Amino acid sequence: MAKFDDHPTVRWWREQPIAPNPVKLNADSLRSLCLEAGADDVGFVELDRPAIADQRSDILATFAPTKALISIVCRMNWENVRTPARSVANLEFHANYDEVNEVARAIVKLLNQTGVRALYPSAGFPMEMDRFPDKIWVVSHKPVAVAAGLGHMGLHRNVIHPKFGNFISLGTILIDAEVTEYNQPIDYNPCIDCKLCVVACPVGAIAPDGYFNFSACYTHNYRELMSGFTDWAETIADSKNAKDYRQKVTASESASMWQSLSFKANYKAAYCIAACPAGEDVIAPFLSDRKGFIREVVKPLQDKLEPIYVVPGSDAETYVARRFPHKTIRRVSSGIRPQSIPGFLFGLPLLFQRDQSKGLNAVYHFTFFGAESSQATVTICDRTVQVERGHTGIADLAIVADSKTWLGFVAKEKNLIWALLQRKIRIKGSIKLLQAFGKCFPA
Questions:
Q1: What are the angstrom distances between the C-alpha of 358 and each of 138, 211, 361, 377?
Q2: Domain range annotation of the chain
Q3: What are 171-211's pLDDT values in tens digits?
Q4: Could you say which DSSP state residue 363 is in?
Q5: Using 50, 70 and 90 to split pLDDT, how confident is the model at 21?
Q6: Half-sphere exposure at residue 401, Cβ-oriented, CA atoms within 13 angstroms
Q7: CATH topology of domain 341-440
Q8: Cβ(169)–Cβ(74) under 8 Å?
Q9: Any idea what DSSP says for residue 270?
Q10: Distances in Å between the alpha carbon of 158 and those of 141, 241, 296, 332, 413?
């Protein structure tokens, strides 16, 4: 074998002229490159932008040379999304996600050919499942898009582009070069505050006052994309036989889950996107005939006969029974079981049920020992929850727990009485406050 220095590739590289220090990429040329690659709109954000500061460490952990981010938009065919035939809507979602990934890939290839290093995380659905149920994404595309001037978050927590509305998919490209000019957020929110997303949502995840119930949306709409599969698999495991399974899961539900596994996972609703009339390209039917728009777009979604997946004891269960009695309530587990104490604390604001917390005003001090040692304060007051590191304020209930035992208790795998007798969990204060705490997080 030839010596390393004599290898043809090594010799070739050493004969190349020394590359100049990287210069800033011309913003106009970079924009043209992205549009020619298939993006419908594009914006640029510097890595040090305060608006994405909370993402900096994850971005650098994924691609250390990152100096700037390219945000791209690909628009959807909105009539496909608005139909109550969700197979049609999901086909559009899948096709659009694939398009964003292909466009991002083409842009990265073109940049690489010019000597610019670049990387694109998955568009559409996050894939870092080794971290589940903690943060499973590399980049949060929505805040980057807002910072890049591609729209603002609407009441429904989707980015609304000023022209294309919320019928878009987003992608982000990390590059190792600076850009001559960066974009800034647009000076108005395209959301027209019509609240059609509120009335269309089958689980009440979007409140008129802007509150968002993550757990309600996650449990139903993402039933076949993440931990709903865990719940389904455990239903199989807990079934005595085929007859017992069929009593728990309908034929259409089994077929739907298989379709998601064999083809692509499907959203159960996404009605908030379907009902949104905002955006220059799509607002005409709403402004021309509001009653007609509601009759043609919103009512079919509201009237659709379908199963609605809710966690027992959740705000969503109460909402569906009251607002959509013609829809079939399916009580399921969220499938979320924290694997660590940080994961447990991270999930509390996401799983919180504010209507279940009515009348509860309490401060909880947690002290964990054993495999994981940490302290935290959870404050539930006026139908809100706040999680802080360390102990702050005066505790109404103090909980000292072995970390593994606590996680087992949360997962309903450990008995509280046993844990108290073994001193694996110790409480100071009324046990009723612990019961009230659990009611706020019926996962």
A1: 36, 15, 9, 19
A2: 15-175, 196-331, 341-440
A3: 999 999 999 999 999 999 999 999 999 999 999 999 999 99
A4: E
A5: low
A6: 24
A7: Nonspecific Lipid-transfer Protein; Chain A (3.30.1050)
A8: yes
A9: -
A10: 11, 42, 22, 26, 36
As a whole number of Å, the end-to-end CA separation of the chain is 61
In sequence order, the β-bridge partners of residue 376 are 366, 389
How far, in Å, CA of 290 to CA of 165, rounded? 17
For residue 285, give the H/E element and its range.
Answer: helix 284-288
Could you tell me the fold of the domain covering 15-175?
NADH Oxidase (3.40.109)
| Separation of alpha carbons 185 and 139, rounded Å | 18
**CB 267, CB 81: distance < 8 Å:** no
DSSP letter for each residue of 395-422? -SEEEEEEHHHHHHHHTT-S-HHHHHHT
The pair of structure tokens assigned to 258 is: 């298989």
* pLDDT surpasses 60 at 152: yes
Q: Are 169 and 159 in contact (CB under 8 A)?
A: no
pLDDT, tens digit, 9 for 90 and up, residues 377-393: 999 999 999 999 999 99
- Lowest mean pLDDT segment, chosen from 40-54, 254-268, 277-291: 254-268
